[in-house]
Design brief:
β13 and β14 form a beta hairpin. This protein is 16% helix and 30% strand. The protein is of the alpha+beta class. The strands form 8 sheets. Strands 3, 4, 6, 9 and 10 form a 5-stranded antiparallel β-sheet that branches. It has a 5-stranded mixed β-sheet with strand order 8-7-12-14-13, covered by helices on one side. The protein has a 5-stranded mixed β-sheet with strand order 17-19-24-21-22. The termini are far apart. 44% of the residues are buried. α4 crosses α5.
Length: 615
């Protein structure tokens, strides 16, 4: 005999206990525990359904004197027992129609108090329904009823043990689908006890499932507001959660679900389609990941996709916000749970509630419109969070910030990697420099812009080979502010290191300055005041015997603002160390103008300690 859940309330046709007490689920020694991150305390109860037969009590009940206790449980596809939360438990009397309802707690336990005198033909019905969601077959809610117990004794406890849908896979699958919805309920922020934080009247999610039917029918019905699952889908809880994600979108959008016209079916996550289609499916995928706190989406087929690693240059995955997989990765990277991000561009972390807040309070049809709404809501849309999108080939104007004195090593670039855009801020009235060191055999070009849109070009450096490119800025004459470097691959594939540095020190005659640079740093700069017509010698001496360094003197014309930004090739004097390394580098020249000059030192291979002198 195959045990299934019945969609009827009557104990005569529902699954019954044998002998009125033994469990329908052979209890595991220890039921599976909820993940440590899944919080149950403080989450509002979904409540009982609004229907009279489920929420009422008829006839009028007297003061309770007896308890019905037990545990509701089911087994997943691996045979592991789970105690189900928020399952409706009804204590009923077969003769009088007396009814008291409650919900199982976070451990699947129930304890319902009743008056023994009014329940002379006692039985308990478990229904996969509460005020917020239900699992049904057509219009019938899945339920399971115990056999009748006669004449419970007042003051005694009627113990029903561990009860469940039976040993057949069908009933357990329905209970599993119900429990996935409970995970979603626990995972979203609540302010009003509804799925949609804006609602005054809550919507009940309906999940329609049958053990009979085709295996390719998973979908959300926007007209009927029903999630439809194939017979085997509950064995893949992430696919169930995906469809609940669609139901959630329809609810918070007040049934203004984005048009799916033109969206491919079935949809391949790696395939580019449209921004609308990618948003619809990308949200549902992401919601499933977020509710399970994993970047790995597991399909019923046994295959999986890890949405964390893909970035620029991954073959077979479309780029941009028209590709579902990229949208999923972007949303995941916004809130991924890494303590320390190890990805190149994604350095941002935030809680799911921030993403959900914008999602729930705006009807967005694309990731781009979601991002605009996010900014309206006052959430982070700076380069810090834009990097999470860029990590997934979605560029909404990302400019990777350069931090003074900290070199950044960028990974191997291929022909599919776009130009890299950066931002920096000058904060002191002195010379500053942004410098780039390519790795062999790659070559890159460095261009500096005055505006974030990169339409106002200030200067560039594109020397061949592995020479350090740099552009220097004279903030003695030019106001301090923001600048936007761009790095374009000229020859590759390969890597590069980029750094911005401000001149906090001044080089004085007869007063050597010593400084240390680590291997990640590319250049340093100091100001020195020179007088027209007075010869000067500047020398850079490395302590490291293999260090190859360059020395450049940068000058400009106070009457010509176009000279306030200078490339390496514009240096008024320069010298580059021997390839053998470790040798002093020196320049002697006579300034033609009086003013503050910038002394730029570049480091072609390794860092170390250096001494800079002026005589």
């Amino acid at each position: 005999m195959v045990a299934v859940l019945c969609a009827l309330v009557s104990p005569a046709v529902g699954w019954a206990d044998s002998g009125g007490g033994p469990s329908a689920v052979a209890a595991s020694p220890v039921a599976a525990k909820r993940p440590a991150w899944q919080v149950t305390s403080g989450v509002p109860s979904p409540g009982l359904p609004a229907r009279k037969e489920d929420s009422g009590a008829s006839p009028s009940l007297l003061a309770c004197d007896t308890h019905a206790v037990g545990v509701w449980a089911y087994k997943d596809q691996a045979g592991v027992q789970h105690n189900g939360m928020n399952v409706q438990v009804q204590v009923r009397d077969l003769l009088t129609g007396a009814l008291i309802s409650g919900l199982t707690d976070s451990n699947g336990h129930f304890d319902i108090c009743f008056t023994a005198a009014q329940f002379t033909r006692l039985y308990v019905t478990f229904k996969l329904e509460n005020g917020a969601w239900r699992v049904q077959n057509g219009t019938d809610v899945y339920n399971r009823s115990t056999t009748v117990r006669n004449n419970p004794v007042a003051g005694r406890t009627a113990t029903f043990g561990t009860v469940g849908p039976g040993d057949g896979a069908a009933g357990h699958r329905a209970a599993h689908a119900f429990d996935v919805a409970n995970d979603a309920w626990l995972g979203i922020p609540h302010s009003n006890g509804c799925w949609d934080p804006k609602d005054s009247t809550c919507r009940q999610f309906r999940i329609d499932w049958s053990n009979i039917g085709p295996e390719d029918m998973d979908h959300y019905d926007q007209v009927g507001n029903v999630v439809h699952l194939s017979p085997g889908t509950p064995d893949a809880p992430m696919e169930v959660m995906h469809e609940i994600g669609h139901a959630l979108m329809d609810d918070v959008y007040n049934d203004a679900f984005p048009s799916t016209v033109g969206c491919p079916s079935p949809h391949a996550p790696a395939q580019a389609s449209t921004a609308v289609c990618a948003w619809i499916e990308g949200w549902a995928d992401f919601f499933s990941l977020a509710m399970n706190r994993t970047s790995v989406y597991r399909f019923r087929s046994g295959t999986s996709i890890d949405f964390e690693p893909p970035t620029w240059g991954f073959n077979g995955i479309g780029n941009g916000d028209v590709t579902e997989q990229r949208v999923v990765g972007a949303l995941w990277d916004l809130m991924d749970f890494q303590v320390v991000n190890t990805e190149i561009w994604d350095q941002h972390n935030e809680v799911f509630g921030l993403v959900f807040s914008t999602f729930a309070h705006h009807v967005n049809t694309t990731l781009a419109s979601f991002w605009s709404s996010r900014g309206t809501d006052g959430f982070d849309v700076s380069d810090d969070s834009l990097g999470s999108l860029y990590q997934n080939t979605i560029d909404y104007g990302y400019r990777r910030p350069l931090i003074d004195g900290r070199g950044q090593f960028l990974p191997t670039f291929t022909s599919s990697t776009p130009a890299q855009n950066f931002s920096l801020n000058t904060a002191v009235q002195s010379w500053s420099v942004v410098a780039l060191r390519p790795s062999a055999p790659t070559d890159f070009a460095l261009t500096l812009y005055d505006d974030r849109a990169q339409t106002v070009r200030l200067g560039s450096s594109f020397l061949g080979g592995q020479a350090v490119d740099f552009v220097a800025i004279d903030s003695n004459l030019r106001p301090v502010g923001d600048y936007y470097p761009r790095v374009t691959q000229f020859q590759g594939p390969g890597t590069f290191t980029i750094e911005s540095a401000m001149g906090f020190d001044t080089l004085e005659p007869g007063a050597p300055t010593r400084f240390h640079l680590d291997d990640s740093q590319v250049a340093a700069v100091q100001d020195t005041a020179l007088t027209a017509g007075v010869p000067v010698t500047i020398t850079l001496t490395p302590d490291n015997p293999i260090s190859v360094a360059g020395l450049f003197v940068m000058g400009d014309d106070p009457g010509n603002p176009s000279t306030f930004v200078q490339s390496r090739s514009s240096a008024v004097a320069s010298a580059v160390g021997s390839n053998s390394g470790g040798q002093p580098v020196s320049v002697t020249f006579t300034p033609t103008r009086t003013g503050e000059y910038g002394i730029v030192t570049t480091f072609d291979n390794v860092g170390g300690d250096y001494t800079l002198t002026r005589s």
